Inverse folding.
């Protein structure tokens, strides 16, 4: 059964950036422990901070174990560098365009911003030319609009820029 | 009993509710069948549209999506060797070899019928066992709920990933996220950093869509160039002789599925693995060896993972605890609709229970109908290029998240959780324990503190109560067994 993704083939070898990521999780766990402790300290076993502190202790221990394990693992060489294996251009592009889409949705409304997002992402990801990308985008958006706005009465963001 | 039947048949008698269940099943089958789009993702995105609906309509759609999604995952497991859902991983072991031998149609037909059988067994057990369990759970003390939550988190953390430490990390992260907001007992602020928006807690449906939907979309970008393979399917209706031959095995493995599904934290994937193992033991000489296209393997996997759906509803409706990641999402949706699943649900709102059982039965029937028809449409949808599909999922995720409380801030939460989920998944962490942690965290918190307050904050008395009460002791033993077993495995590995 081959259900693995490309990055999961490098078992027992650390993936690019894994040690840094695990280190960041450990630092994050330290911060959560500090904030959990500052809720109510060790004032009582039934204080509001008791379960947050318990969870934070587990976070801290498990992230430390993972950090030590990752540090001991040999570095994987098969999957390439952090940029090529973890954040290739397509992922960065899509993250950027999704963030841009979310940022403009309140100003330009659902229809205009979704059409722009669908068009640019389909143009880049599907690579079948300008005309087909715009046609697909319009059709898909029309279906989504009719199903969710017209039939199911779901409220969609409206443009504030024109108001 | 007459009342129960009346409630059961609401979804069947009302044409609109009937339509919604059928629509949910249809959507579930097709979304579940698309590789990479898990049933949890489908449920998280699609149920967010139901928050402004009447509760009966929402429940009808949810039951359909869940049943359909679990079944849909098997289709691509058989045709492409890519399970559409984690519960279909075992289906691929024999399903794909059967497809390579030109028996894809027969395999799909048989898996559809056996999924129906498994689903039916799960629903019957749910209908019979839930009222009994519900009575029993009235004896549960707050500490037992605390222990059950710990057991559930431990099980899902230990079973869903490559490392126990990573599983526990994700569960603890989920619990910490679930603590954000005002303390339910004293209204003290926790992890709010003075922000008014955080006092209401994190928008967990947005977090779920992020962790399951957005993260998966980014993972799928790595396979953007892979073209789906075309398969020729002609006859998919299985012969009665074949169905009769494999029915006993299907019933046995359905039993396994419903029991595993009912354990908090375990779902169809674990059920399918255990059922496959059982099929291997009871069929020493299959016509085709296991792993090379044995119908027994396919049937065991499909019957059990569909039976696990009914099983997963048992802890959800009787204890208010999710049986798996999908029921965790459904519990979140029920809270938003003002329904509190738990021991009192069956006594206070029996109509909702029997209505749900009726919807699941209807959805199961729809699986049989949709599963054995529309194969051409199915092939076209599954072959939809990812270059189109992934942007569409993003738009649906945005629409779904925005629909919860008409807030773009929630959409940012979704995106943030999606990016975190992408890195976590990439580095071998599973996101299901996070979601379970978010849901179970508050329950764990309130149960633990009520239990400790009831013994005047005396930790010694609290610990003594855990070992001196039979229910608590059984749960403590369960936790110890899971922990020791997994520590052993970790050391051996």
């Amino acid at each position: 059964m081959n259900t693995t993704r490309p990055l999961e083939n490098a078992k027992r070898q650390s993936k690019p950036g894994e040690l840094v990521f695990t280190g960041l999780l450990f630092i994050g766990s330290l911060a959560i422990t500090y904030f959990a402790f500052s809720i109510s300290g060790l004032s009582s076993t039934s204080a509001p901070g008791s379960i947050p502190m318990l969870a934070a202790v587990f976070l801290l221990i498990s992230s430390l174990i993972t950090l030590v394990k990752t540090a001991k693992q040999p570095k994987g060489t098969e999957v390439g560098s952090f940029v090529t294996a973890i954040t290739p251009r397509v992922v960065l592009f899509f993250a950027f365009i999704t963030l841009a889409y979310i940022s403009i949705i309140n100003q330009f409304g659902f229809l205009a911003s979704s059409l722009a997002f669908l068009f640019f992402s389909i143009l880049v990801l599907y690579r079948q030319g300008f005309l087909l990308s715009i046609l697909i985008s319009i059709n898909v958006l029309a279906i989504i609009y009719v199903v969710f706005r017209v039939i199911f009465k779901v409220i969609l963001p409206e443009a504030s820029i024109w108001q | 009993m007459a009342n129960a039947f009346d409630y059961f048949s609401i979804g069947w008698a009302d044409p609109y509710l009937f339509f919604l269940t059928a629509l949910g099943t249809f959507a579930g089958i097709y979304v579940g069948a698309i590789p990479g789009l898990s049933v949890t993702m489908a449920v998280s995105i699609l149920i967010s549209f139901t928050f402004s609906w009447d509760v009966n309509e929402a429940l009808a759609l949810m039951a359909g999506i869940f049943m359909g999604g679990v079944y849909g995952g098997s289709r691509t497991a058989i045709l492409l060797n890519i399970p559409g859902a984690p519960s279909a991983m075992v289906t691929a072991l024999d399903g794909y070899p059967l497809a390579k031998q030109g028996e894809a149609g027969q395999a799909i037909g048989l898996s559809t019928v056996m999924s129906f059988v498994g689903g039916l067994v799960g629903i019957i057990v749910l209908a019979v066992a839930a009222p009994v369990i519900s009575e029993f759970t009235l004896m549960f003390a707050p500490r037992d709920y605390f222990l059950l939550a710990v057991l559930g988190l431990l099980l899902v953390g230990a079973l869903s990933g490559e490392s126990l430490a990573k599983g526990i990390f994700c569960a603890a992260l989920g619990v910490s996220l679930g603590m954000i907001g005002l303390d339910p007992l004293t209204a003290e602020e926790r992890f709010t950093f003075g922000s008014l928006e955080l006092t209401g807690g994190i928008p967990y449906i947005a977090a779920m869509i992020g962790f399951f939907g957005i993260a998966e979309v980014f993972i799928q970008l790595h396979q953007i160039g892979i073209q789906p393979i075309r398969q020729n399917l002609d006859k998919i209706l299985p012969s009665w002789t074949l169905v009769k031959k494999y029915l006993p095995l299907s019933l046995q493995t359905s039993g396994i599925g419903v029991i595993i599904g009912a354990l908090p934290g375990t779902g169809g994937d674990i059920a399918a693995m255990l059922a496959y193992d059982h099929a291997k033991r009871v069929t020493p000489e299959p016509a085709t060896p296991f792993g090379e296209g044995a119908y027994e393997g396919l049937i065991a996997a499909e019957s059990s993972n569909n039976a696990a759906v009914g099983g997963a509803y048992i802890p959800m409706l009787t204890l208010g605890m999710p049986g798996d990641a999908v029921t965790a999402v459904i519990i979140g949706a029920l809270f938003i609709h003002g329904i509190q699943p738990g021991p009192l649900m069956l006594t206070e709102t029996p109509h909702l229970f029997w209505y749900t059982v009726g919807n699941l039965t209807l959805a199961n029937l729809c699986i049989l109908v949709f599963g054995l028809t529309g194969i051409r449409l199915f092939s076209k949808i599954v072959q939809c290029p990812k270059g189109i599909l992934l942007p569409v999922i993003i738009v649906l995720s945005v629409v779904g998240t925005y629909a919860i409380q008409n807030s773009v801030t929630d959409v940012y939460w979704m995106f943030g959780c999606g990016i975190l989920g992408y890195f976590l998944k990439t580095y071998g962490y599973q996101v299901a324990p996070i979601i379970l942690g978010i849901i179970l965290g508050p329950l764990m918190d309130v149960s633990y503190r009520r239990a400790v307050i009831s013994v005047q904050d005396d930790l010694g008395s609290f610990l003594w109560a855990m070992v001196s009460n039979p229910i608590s002791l059984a749960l403590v033993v369960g936790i110890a067994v899971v922990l020791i077993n997994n520590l052993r495995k970790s050391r051996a590995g």
